[in-house]
UniProtKB/TrEMBL annotation, chain A:
Keyword annotations of the record: Cell membrane, Membrane, Transmembrane, Transmembrane helix
Protein's name according to its UniProt entry: Branched-chain amino acid transport system permease protein
Transmembrane segments: 21-41, 47-65, 72-90, 96-119, 126-145, 171-190, 221-242, 248-267, 274-291, 303-328
Membrane topology of the entry: Multi-pass membrane protein
Lineage: Bacteria, Bacillati, Actinomycetota, Actinomycetes, Micromonosporales
Gene source species: Paractinoplanes brasiliensis
Main location: membrane
TrEMBL record, chain B:
PANTHER family to which the protein is assigned, alphabetical: ABC TRANSPORTER PERMEASE PROTEIN, BRANCHED-CHAIN AMINO ACID TRANSPORT SYSTEM PERMEASE PROTEIN LIVH
Naturally occurring in which organism (per UniProt): Paractinoplanes brasiliensis
GO biological process entries: amino acid transport
Record's GO cellular component terms: plasma membrane
Keywords: Amino-acid transport, Cell membrane, Membrane, Transmembrane, Transmembrane helix, Transport
Name of the protein this chain belongs to: Amino acid/amide ABC transporter membrane protein 1 (HAAT family)
Transmembrane domains' residue ranges: 12-29, 60-82, 94-114, 142-159, 180-208, 214-232, 261-278
Amino acid sequence: MTAVQDRAGTRAAARTRPRRVHPLIVVVVGAVIVVVLTYTLPPFRTYQLATVGAYLCVTAGLTVLTGLNGQLSLGHGALMATGAYTLALWQNRFNLLAVGILLAVLVTTAAGAVIGLAAARLRGPYLAGLTLAVAVVVPSITSTFDETFNSDQGLSVMLNPPPGSVTNEQWQAWLCWGGALLTVLVLALLTRGRFGRDMRAVRDDETAARLAGVSVARTQVWAFVVSAACAGLAGALFAVIAQSVSPGAFPLTLSLFLLMAIVIGGLGRLSGALIGAVLLVALPALAHEIGEAAGSQRLEGNLALTFFGVVLVVVMLAAPGGLASLRLPVKRRTPTR
Amino acid sequence: MDRFVFLTFDGLSRGAVYAAFALALVLIWRAARIVNFAQGAMAVATAYVGYSVADATGSYWLGFVVAIVAGLLLGAAVERVVMRFVDHSSPLNGVVVALGLVLIIQGVLGMIYGNEFRPAAAPFSRDAYELGGVALLSRYDLFVFGAVGAVVVLLTLLFTRTPTGLRMRAAAFAPDVSRLLGVPVGGMLTLGWALAAAVGSLAGLLVIPTELGLHPTAMDIVFISAFTAAVLGGLDSPIGAVLGGLVVGLLLSYISGYLGATVAPMAVLALLVVVLLSRPDGLFARSKARAA
């Protein structure tokens, strides 16, 4: 009886919900849009597009970790630094970009596994405190091992010029969006299946998940590892875009910005990660323009900081599920209650 | 040996500050089950206010008092305006809101005062007294011990000997029953936040002259150290916070003294990992703290 009702319920839900498109189609469409944009946008906009792609890698991974699995990480800025430094060290010795990016992802994945093993045993404020400590410790690592990491100055990244007649900005945009779309595809496929179900079960009720045979610790560690790999990729891509790495590029505020991006975009949705990544590029640019108009350099960076903070607080108070839990009026075809 | 003695006293002086800061974290945790991640930023904000007043009037002590009062007001305001409206169904929400406050405070401070380090004067000499050629304590260290000791004693008296303290404890542990008995639970919560923020301001005022100076992010590492101290002692235990603070202070002093100052933040991280993984309830917690 209940099964029949359930099935009827699911069918009703399926009817009201828009049909899910296969992620592969989304990714192909996305790739076409990016390529078209790189040929039409001016170089600076193309550069910004590339930055959005690099951010999307990490916000997508963080969305899966925090939104689907309920683990808050403030250490993803540090994980990005891990990827970026790995790439820089590799490039300056061997100058093979593809291998370098792969290596950056692998090293960051290993670092993520270590943090993830600890994280799986911690909850709420304890996990946040631990990952916060990871985020804050980056500059002290680079100055302690300054022969390798060159303290606050950081390292420059050796890169070959882009092939053929491709401009540098186009090349960056393709590279970053190649990484971003691949990340989104993998995460979308991963979270659709059993892994995604396990993560949501763990997030919603650990005891129930355990009773249902889900290994809570293993799910949490895997979620952390996967999102760490995404952060490592993002870090490597940032190193490529900036052609340098330094601790100043990965401050604690970067981790807080990432958190803001996924909260504002809507926890647990990959589309939310895209909104967040766009905002991470657009809002500082907007603040820059306002700062320039006001003729105050002091305003520039701090305006973005303040604005992000206000948005974070307001969204958490008004809609703890993120903006995605507030349906946009256009989309509201069926009454929600 | 001389060096060890000096580092021990230096560590206790640092530890006293961490203890005060950890105490502020514990106060809010006991009252509201929130770890106030914005506490460092709030302390920095009040320190800026204090030093501005001191600069304008030429009196360090007037600035000191103003900073503490600003702490009281800021704490009360944060609770009344923001924290009261946080949805507590998930412990993450409080953390995220506090981190949003960090961004706001750091951004506003940067806009008003700029993002460079500003020198912060200490009210007493930081040159250590010597005893038989061994550097022991400076007048500033004595001031730190005196100030933190006074706060610990005053808070203990408040909570154990006064009707207000009793109401605050009741409001924290059994809000519904307290409300039935006529305790203004919301008001007690605001008072708790105000007190905690004032204690945090004091810790900020004490630590900032010994670090690089005033900067919007000046307290980030201090916050981590104090958080480690509070977790070490158990977030529910004020005594634990004080002892945890002293332990963390000593450890950091030895490590920066023998291995170099840049290693200290890594040591805090290592200590935090060890404590969280081995004694997750802290050394002094009676109830199960880890459930949240």
